[in-house]
Specification:
The complex is a heterodimer. By secondary structure, chain A is α+β, with helices and mostly antiparallel strands. Chain A has two domains: 2-112, Ubiquitin-like (UB roll) (Roll), CATH 3.10.20; 115-230, Orthogonal Bundle (Fumarate Reductase Iron-sulfur Protein, Chain B, domain 2). Helices cover 31% and strands 14% of the residues of chain A. In chain A, α3 (115-124) runs parallel beside α6. Chain B contains 15 helices and 27 strands. Classes of the chains: A alpha+beta, B alpha+beta.
Amino acid sequence: MQYELWILRQDSPESTPYRQCIPFETDDPQMTAATALTQINETPGITDSEGNPVQPIRWECSCLQKKCGACAMRINGVPRLACDAKLAECAKKGRITLEPLRKFPVVADLICDRSVLMKNLHLLQIWFEAETKADETVGDLTYDAARCLQCGCCLEVCPNFYADGDFYGMSGLLPAARLLTALPDIQKHALHRACRAHLYEGCGKSLACRNICPAGIDIDRLLVNSNAAAVWKRRMAKKKREKSR
Amino acid sequence: MQRFQIIGAGLSGLSAAITLAKRGFSCNLFSLQPSERAQSVLAEGGINGALNTMGENDSPALHFADTVRGGVQLADPNAVEGLTAHAPEILRQLEALGVPFHMKNGELILRNFGGQKKKRTAYAKSSTGKIIMSALIDEARKYEHAGRITRFPHHEFLRLLTEGDACTGVRIRDCYTGSMTDYYGAVLLCSGGMNGVFPGMTTGTTQNSGDVTAAVFAQGVPLGNPEMLQYHPTTIGIAGKRCLVTEAARGEGGRLFIERNGERWYFMEEKYPELGNLMPRDVVAREMFFVRQQPEAGGQVYLDMTALPEDTWAHKLSDLRAELMNYLGTDPKHTPVPVHEGIHYFMGGIAVDAQHRAGRNGLYAAGECACQYHGANRLGGNSMLGALYGGQVAAQTAAAAGADLPEPAAVNETEPYAQPASPVLIHAVSGILLDALGIVRDAETLQAARERLRTLSHAREYNAREQARLRLAEAMLLGALERRESRGAHYRSDFPQTDEAYRKTTVVRCLQDSVSVTFEPIPQRKGETDRAI
């Protein structure tokens, strides 16, 4: 199968982006955008569709199995992980576009600087001030919240998030939710206030982030429970009980 | 204020940073990517600690015995004693950070893991590494806020700064801007295993390139047991890598079989009635290799999890099931999974003593990049433990030896290690090593590989990183060639027996134009002489 990979190239943060079309042939139905990028970068003398040499494409990856969030990018317009994007499934008439996430400043090619995610977690003061212990009755909520990859895909589709804005989005809410499941009393006031100001009030409830999480985290459930604890001062939902007959 | 330079922000790096920060010291934490992308997030099945919550009379002494035996007597017994004695405390520390381990009535539930006779592996489904990392990242953030930990993501280690025999700091490059800076102080290497030496053929990440280990080796830091590669018995091939099927699958009841004369042969259970499918990984991987060679066998080993109870899938292995369904398109609940051995862990690496000193003043190493705790074969559940405990010990040792230091300085000269290694060379080296460093090795193949490597080394001029990579490959081959016995992960068909004379650490040094190997005694267990008397 012959594909056309249209990659949005940018040499540096200041330079003008341009699109480069790289023909790519594979018979492997499992071939992902991540492995295609690796192979392109490892092919000496590779040229684009106009015969120009392809300079190494700068992109980030790490685990290659959907567990680290490094390779998040826009693939045919949808934010997702390149290691989870099979060419055979996401190509449209053999064409695949790869672009960096737009909500963050571009460093080069497909790399963008997502450090605002870390900055926002600092501003929310996401840590335990005192020793704690996970509450086993809400252990599955804690577990799911701790699975957030900090990849930024949810922020990319969020109509309310922008870098350096006051609303921190779902990637801020999930680590906060982990804390909320076992929050020591001394921290309650501060974290609840921060959650209200930066996670609850700015959210337009569009739920655009709902089905975008590459880790498949049940965002609705964590959103509802975090708001219940931080905003409405209610207890988090216990484990779903089996329905009584 | 003293500064400590930590290379790598995975479990061992975070552990070291938090340990230093708790004691009031400040440190810099350099990593190619943020902690969320570290290989530690891939650790699945669990972390060991003899908490004895399962009513099996477990103890740190039994954990010690299993670890030393699993490593086929090649690990430093004093280091292992510290590891296993502190393991329950480490689990308690993680609990205090809110890690949602599997619990019942306030007590940790522990699961069976390979090579161990007691249930002693704490877990959070099969994403234990990710869940622990999330807790440690938050804890580190507290100290970042206090100014004691300074993070440098997207920063790359280039080389050590040295003065005579002492390590005085590190040269670091900002991968986003290209600028280089020298940072002075004690250096803690927490840079992970050498997966990048075998690109696409391991269960690890692309970020663990092995470049740090190669560079410090080329700078004269000795390596220990570089021939000891762990092949995990159960991996599947996915795009660009091997994907781990956690040992917890067997811990929870998964069974290995191969078709023989039209019937399923559960070979591990037949050959090893006591531990069966949960024999140490080196044994299982080797048995898989050999049963596949049998002419009447089917050639493909399967992991059968179809008899696992519904509760196990729902609460203990739900994420494994989702992953396998995603990659294989079949449900492991109903269909056995075809599995193959894959490179998973590097027991060898930067040689360290029990205090994690790496052969020269001011240099320490911990986690998978260091050769410590696991001997000739690592037990499942001991890697995260070794990373956390090793990070703590390295930090404590470094803190006791700190000194006043100059301020960081920008680098304006050309740095040879700033040039990356060419992918063509990386794959050529990997191909040579894979042919010779499989599950079964012999002198002829290893010699042939050394010849090929030598030819490659003279084929053209190489940059500093490429030369270091070639030296590292030579170290692995030479260690495997000179260890004329079979022990743990190192199996020699021409020397199939374990030889007491080789119950020593392979120490490989990089000389001007060559690589040398010696075998150095393993420290005697403290108090052992007294006990003997």
